[in-house]
Write a structure and sequence with these properties.
Helix content of chain A: 55-70%
Strand content of chain A: under 5%
Shape of chain A: rod-shaped
Largest sheet of chain A: none
Number of helices of chain A: 2
Distance between the termini of chain B: 68 Å
Largest interface: A-B, 26 and 40 residues
Radius of gyration of chain B: 30 Å
Number of helices of chain B: 34
Oligomer: heterodimer
Shape of chain B: globular
Radius of gyration of chain A: 14 Å
CATH topology of one domain in chain B: Alkaline Phosphatase, subunit A
Order of helices and strands of chain A: HH
CATH class of one domain in chain B: Alpha Beta
Number of strands of chain B: 20
Chain lengths: ~55, ~850
């Protein structure tokens, strides 16, 4: 977590991304959905980076 | 299982969940799922047990048994394989848990996170242990599951996948708890990381539970979340309103939403669990204790083991909903021990007579009559407990290991580890003693505590609990000695010891001195409800009723849910003949603690005196369901039923008294030559009706007579003759007490005397003298016999015992005569009782050996 939470220099969005906590509360199904979403996001970011380059 | 009342049962454990916090959040609309759930079921307080340590409590919940029976006595235990300590394990539990009984009855369970459940037990169904969710490794480091985490093994991989590492969480998960997260310097403030870890652990438990509910067949699912407890210990001090000026303003602003956030998260998780359970499942939500969230938060947390438990409120949360369960009603008198029997009844299974709890029959719409068996422990067949070679009593094993180390068979694991293991044993002993104290097995508590105190006088916990124990045992002389020891150590007694001195002073009948002590302490600790209550009770004893009322009212200003303050006020107003106010306060007391026969009895009195005859009849009847031998309640009912023209019912109670209560009401007992005859004479002089046949004549050993009955000697063979005794006083030596008919109630004055004096006196009676030698073995036997009979007496609900030290009686007959009058609730001629004591006789009967 120490590496993941941004420092003051890198502020959070004040309004949380909708549904993050809700998905955890859903249990196994929500966790899987959230992990999938995170993986897609990561992939999209990676693709965007490679397109920029 | 013809009587099965639940198709399926879901038991959700929220450690430390508290109604005060919940109700405030419900009022604000923050917990919609729980609010809806409560409207469809019953709710109530659930009383915790002593000591309020989670592994002990959750094992009592799962077994229905007290700690000395189930064997789990703390958070950690000695690790007899490697030395040092380890978290307490499932193999330490000595008895079957609910899931073992269900296994024996072919019912499938999912058990997740229960404390302690590692190694997971091979039950019918699945078990994911309490070590499952714990994360210590970094995100990219290996994070293997602890051995024994999952049963059956086929699910291990799936469960491993469902674990959420705290580093997986993002700011989006944390912002609802800490909106100002971006302002916090994470290098210096560890709290956001701790919060993330706890949140990930809760989500992990939820993920495993929901997956098992969806994918495995089950009759019973039990899941335990420790997150509310952990959050409360860290963040409750920041929960609004700010209670303590010493709390850092910045930290308060950062973390003031944490508690609300975690309750809301549990409400969200609850919705998913209820959806998966379905409408036809009976659901119980409960906590093992509450958590002080308001001005009653303790000002400081003791640094010793178990110190944080001072933040635990003694009442937790209980609510239940499902087919056949009442809706929107309250249940009273629930304890943690009642959960396992209630679950058995829901599944149509009999309850073991050896459990300490009861089925919550008042929660059901229709009348429920639980069935019983002697014990589930005797029922053979596979129950899913670990095999005998894995079952372990770590406390005994620790002693064996120590001996092996000393003998050189096992390498010494090192000083630190040994110290840790030894401390774990001491903590377990202290916890066992606390448990005994809470159920009035005071002699057993005394044996443990006096040993701990002797070994370590510096640990104030031992002295404090020993003082509590001595107060309960009425051993004020010994208690005074301990107080004196502490007075020689401290210039001024610490507050807890001061409070205990006050209690001892009450025991010594030094009420005014007790009042001074409590007043002085209260001046330094304004707002302490315990001190305020003790002060009020002392004023009540001193018959200073107006002062008592002020102090009881003050207690309620501090703690508006204090049932004993309401009870005290009820009694004050009863004494002042203000019956409406007495009724109002007694009713409020009963609302908090329903199982309190004296409160119902006093309510009956107040109602009867106010002319509310039918309500009074109800109150007395409730008191009698809780305490059937309350003679005064029977007498009131005879009067009231006669007045309302129900002679048949009056006759029932009249018959009860004449058939059941025709028994000696006072028994003088003890070893032969312990002063029983002196006590009999004292009672006779005071006006008691003595039953003695006078066959044994006075002699030089007992010049004033023996006050004996020939028939007593053959009580072991025949005790029928006791039926002829009505309201009289009879002498029965201690060895014969177990032959008293158990269906009746007795007040026993038990004489105690120094064993060497008893023996000397017995030897003298037998015509022996010092030259015949001192019978050492006999002395030990007599001591053991007295200890044994005392233990037995503690277990007899129908016997109330007052111990009287013979030497003390001779030295201070006035105090003892007053105590006897109070104990027997009879009006004696105290002056004449005192005259019966002949100090010369004591000296003659007490020759030097």
């Amino acid at each position: 977590m120490r590496n993941k939470i941004p420092s003051v220099k890198e502020p959070f969005e004040v309004v949380p991304e909708r549904g993050s906590l809700g998905l955890l509360a859903l249990g196994a199904v929500g966790l899987m959905a959230w992990r999938e979403k995170m993986a897609e996001k990561k992939k999209a970011k990676k693709d965007a980076n490679s397109n920029n380059h | 299982m013809d009587n099965r009342r639940a198709k399926k049962v879901l038991l959700i454990g929220w450690d430390a969940a508290d109604w005060i916090v919940i109700d405030k959040l419900i009022q604000k609309g923050e917990l919609p799922t729980l609010e809806k759930f409560l409207s469809k079921g019953v709710r109530g307080n659930i009383a915790t047990l002593e000591p309020p340590a989670s592994p002990i409590l959750w094992t009592s919940i799962a077994t229905g048994m007290l700690p000395h029976k189930h064997g789990v006595l703390g958070f950690v235990e000695p690790n007899n394989e490697t030395g040092g300590i380890r978290p307490v394990r499932s193999t330490t539990r000595k008895v079957k848990a609910i899931w073992n009984i269900l296994t024996q009855n072919n019912l499938k369970s999912n058990i997740v996170g229960w404390w302690p459940s590692n190694p997971a037990e091979p039950i019918l169904g699945t078990m994911v242990s309490n070590l499952y969710q714990i994360s210590e490794a970094g995100l990219d480091d290996p994070w293997p599951m602890y051995p024994g985490t999952v049963y059956p093994e086929r699910l291990a991989q799936k469960m491993e996948e469902l674990r959420i590492h705290p580093h997986e969480l993002t700011e989006n998960h944390l912002l609802p708890f800490i909106p100002d997260l971006y302002k916090i310097d994470l290098k210096t403030d560890p709290l956001p990381h701790q919060l993330a870890k706890m949140l990930a652990e809760a989500a992990t438990i939820q993920a495993a539970t929901t997956w098992l509910m969806e994918n495995e067949e089950w009759d019973f699912t039990a899941v335990y979340f420790d997150t509310i407890d952990h959050f409360s210990h860290i963040f409750m001090k920041y929960n609004p309103p700010k209670m303590n000026e010493e709390i850092d303003e910045k930290l308060y602003e950062y973390y003031k939403y944490a508690i609300t956030g975690i309750y809301k998260f549990h409400d969200m998780m609850l919705q998913r669990l209820l959806d998966l359970a379905g409408e036809d499942t009976t659901v119980i939500i409960m906590s093992d204790h509450g958590f002080y969230s308001d001005h009653l938060r303790p000002p400081y947390i003791p640094k010793d083991h178990g110190g944080p438990t001072v933040e635990h409120r003694p009442f937790g949360v209980f609510c239940m909903s499902g087919p056949g369960i009442k809706e929107g009603e309250k249940v009273f008198g629930t304890t943690l021990l009642d959960i396992a029997p209630t679950l058995l009844t829901l599944f149509g299974l009999p309850v073991g007579k050896d459990v300490d709890g009861k089925t919550l029959v008042t929660a059901f719409k229709e009348k429920v009559t639980p069935t019983f068996i002697d014990s589930w422990e005797n029922v053979a067949g596979e129950c899913g407990m670990h095999p005998d070679d894995l079952q372990e009593n770590p406390w005994e094993a620790q002693a064996a290991m120590k001996q092996l180390i000393e003998l050189g068979y096992i390498q010494n694991p090192g000083e630190e580890k040994n110290k840790g293991a030894a401390q774990a044993v001491i903590e377990a002993q202290l916890n066992q003693a606390k448990s005994f104290l809470s159920i009035n097995r005071n002699q057993e508590a005394y044996e443990i505590l006096s040993k701990l105190y002797k070994e370590s006088k510096n640990d104030l916990r031992f002295g404090k609990h020993l003082l509590v124990c001595l107060d309960k045992l009425g051993k004020y002389k010994e208690a005074r000695q301990i107080i004196d020891v502490y007075k020689s150590i401290f210039k001024k007694l610490p507050p807890t010891l001061g409070y205990l001195e006050g209690k001892i002073l009450i025991g010594e009948k030094r009420y005014n001195d007790a009042c001074d002590v409590f007043n002085e302490l209260y001046d330094t600790q304004k707002g302490n409800p315990t001190l305020s209550l003790e002060l009020a009770k002392t004023y009540y004893i001193l018959d200073k009723i107006n002062l008592a009322i002020d102090a009881f009212e003050n207690t309620l200003l501090i703690e508006n849910e204090n049932p004993m303050a309401y009870y005290g006020l009820g009694n004050c107003y009863l004494k002042l003949q203000n019956y409406p106010l007495a009724i109002e306060h007694l009713l409020q007391s009963i609302e908090f603690i329903y199982h309190h026969p004296s409160a119902h009895y006093n309510l009956g009195e107040a109602l009867a005196l106010e002319g509310e005859k039918m309500h009074a009849i109800n109150a007395f009847n409730v008191a009698l369901t809780m305490s059937p031998g309350l003679i005064q309640a029977h007498k009131w009912l005879i009067k009231l039923y006669t007045e309302v023209n129900e002679p048949a019912k009056a006759l029932e109670h009249s018959n009860f008294i004449s058939t059941k209560i025709i028994m000696p009401n006072i028994i003088v007992s003890g070893l032969p030559r312990s002063g029983t005859s002196a006590m009999m004479q004292m009672l006779q002089m005071g006006g008691a009706a003595i039953w003695s046949d006078g066959k044994r004549e006075a002699d030089i050993a007992n010049p004033k007579g023996y006050y004996e009955l020939e028939a007593v000697k053959s009580m072991a063979q025949n005790a029928d003759w006791l039926k002829g005794v009505n309201g009289k006083t009879i002498k029965i030596i201690s060895h014969l007490l177990p032959f008293l008919p158990p269906e009746n109630e007795y007040k026993i004055i038990f004489m105690e005397r120094d064993i060497s004096e008893v023996m000397m006196s017995q030897q003298k009676m037998l015509g022996k003298s010092a030259k015949d030698g001192y019978p050492v073995m006999l002395g030990k036997t007599l001591t053991d016999q007295v200890a044994k009979i005392k233990k037995w007496l503690e277990r007899q609900p129908n016997m109330e015992v007052m111990f009287v030290d013979y030497a003390s009686l001779i030295g201070n007959p006035v105090a003892h005569a007053q105590q006897i009058e109070a104990f027997t609730k009879q009006a004696f001629d105290v002056d004449k009782m005192i005259m019966a004591i002949d100090k010369d006789l004591y000296r003659n009967n007490n020759p030097k050996w």
